[in-house]
Amino acid sequence: MSWGFLRDLLSGVNKYSTGIGRIWVAVVFIFRLLVYVAAAENIWKYEYDEFECNIRQPGCENVCFDHFFPVSHIRLWALQLIMVSTPSLVVVFHVAYRENREKHHNQKLYTSPGKIDGGLLCTYLISLILKTGFEIVFLVLFYKLYNGFQVPRLVKCDIRPCPNTVDCYISKPTEKMIFLCFLVATSCLCIVLNLGELSYLIFKYSIKCYLKRYIKKRQ
Fold first, then answer.
1. Rg of the Cα trace of the chain?
2. Is position 2 within any domain?
3. Per-residue pLDDT reduced to its tens digit, 46-102
4. Residue 42 CA, distance from chain mean position
5. Please, what's the b/e burial string for 107-141 (b: 16 or more CB within 10 A of its CB; e: otherwise)?
6. Through-space distance between the first and last CA atoms of the chain, rounded to whole angstroms
7. N or C: which end of the chain has fewer CB within 10 A?
8. Which residue, among 190, 53, 173, has the nearest Cα to 131 in the 3D structure?
9. What distance in Å separates the CA atoms of residue 163 and residue 145, rounded to the nearest whole number?
10. What does the CA dihedral 4, 79, 147, 69 come to, rounded to 10 degrees?
C-alpha cells in the first residue's frame, strides 16, 4: 500500500490540532510510520522463510508457524496504524463541511472553520476517544495473540502432523524484540497524549462554560 495517503492525512489533521495533538501527530509520523516503513517492515519481511524447525515432516513447520504467529506482526501493526489514524479523518471532514456550509450561504458562519468549538469540539473529543480505544484494543490483542510482548528464541511445538515435540527457531529474535518494545512504548505514549489532550479540552471547555455563567450572573 501507499503510506503517502496516511502521511497527507496526518498533515491535514495537524492544522486543526491543539499543541498536544501536534505532538501526537509527530510521534505517529516519525516514531511509528517512518520506523515501520524504514526498518520494522524489513525485519519481519521473511519471517516465514526464516522460521525453522528441527524436523522435515511435511506440514509440521507450516502448522507450528501458524500456531505461534496466527497474524503477522507487520500486518497487525499496519492495521493498527490505519485504525488509529482514521478517526482524525472525521475531524477533517467536519472542517470541510463547515467550509462548504460557509460557501453555500455565502457568509461568515464561524469565527474560523478549523477552530475547535461547538460541534467540532464534540467531533474532536469523539476522535480522541476512538483513537485511545483502538490503541488499547490492539495492545490487548498483541498481548493475547503472542502471550506477552516478547519474541522467544526457541518455541516447542507438538501439534499434528508433527510426530512429537519439535524445536522451532525464530530468526533475529533480539532485533525483533527491540522493535517490538519500541513500537509498544510509542503506542503507550500515544495513549497518554490522547488522554492528556482529552483532559485538557474538557477542562478548558468546563472553565469556559463556568466563566460564561459567572459573567451572566454578574450582569
1. 23
2. no
3. 777 778 888 777 888 888 888 888 888 888 888 888 888 888 888 888 887 777 877
4. 19
5. eeebeebbebeeebeebbbebbebbbebbeebbee
6. 59
7. C
8. 190
9. 25
10. -90
Which set of grid coordinates corresponds to residue 60? 509440521
Domain count for the chain: 1
Cβ contact 81:6 at 8 Å: yes
DSSP 31: I
Residue 157, phi-psi category: left (phi > 0), alpha (psi -120 to 50), beta (remainder):
beta
The grid coordinates of residue 91 equal 475531524
> Do the beta carbons of residue 139 and residue 76 sit within 8 Å?
no
Amino acid at 150: Q
Residue 7 forms part of a structural domain? no
Q: Which amino acid is at 80?
A: Q
| 174 found inside a domain | yes
How far apart (Å, rounded) are the C-alpha atoms in residues 99 and 103? 6
Lookup: cell for 146:
503472542
> Which of 14-18, 48-52, 86-90, 186-190 shows the lowest mean pLDDT across its residues?
14-18
| Domain at 23, CATH number | 1.20.1440.80
Instruction: Determine the structural domain holding residue 212 and report its residue range.
Output: 18-217
Cα–Cα distance for residue pair 110/193, rounded to 1 Å: 28
pTM of the model: 0.82
Of the pLDDT bands very low, low, confident and very high (cuts 50, 70, 90), residue 140 is very high
Beta bridge pairs of residue 156: 167
Helix (H, G, I), strand (E, B) or coil at 162: coil
Cα–Cα distance list, 206 to 44, 73, 117, 199 (Å): 47, 41, 12, 10
Residue 148 lies in a domain: yes
